[in-house]
Amino acid sequence: MRHEASKEIIKRLENEGWYLSRKGRVTVLHPKSNVYGDTLRSIYRQAE
């Protein structure tokens, strides 16, 4: 099962321009050492 640390997810989203320059909202559980499966997929779906 794929997983990522919340810190890495936030870093990836910021690198893709999600800090202040894009409209919308992406919810990331933080601090959480591992985010798995459906939750991880949902985060990246929100960021599309």
Structure description:
With 48 residues, the protein is mainly α. It has one domain (3-46). The protein is 42% helix and 8% strand. The chain has helices at residues 6-15, 37-46, and strands at 3-4, 35-36. The protein has a two-stranded antiparallel ribbon with strand order 1-2. 6% of the residues are buried.
> From N to C, what is the helix and strand string?
EHEH
Strand order of the largest sheet: 1-2
So what's the overall shape?
globular
Distance between the termini: 22 Å
Stretches with pLDDT under 50, minimum 5 residues: none
Number of domains: 1
Protein structure class: mainly alpha
Query: Based on DSSP secondary structure assignment, what is the total number of beta strands?
Result: 2
Rg, Cα atoms, Å: 10 Å
Helix content: 40-55%
Main beta-sheet strand count, sense and barrel state: 2 strands, antiparallel
Mean pLDDT: 82
- Number of helical stretches of at least 4 residues: 2
The proportion of strand residues reads 5-15%
Provide a concise account of the structure shown:
This protein has 48 residues and is mainly alpha-helical. It contains two helices and two strands; from the N terminus they run E-H-E-H.
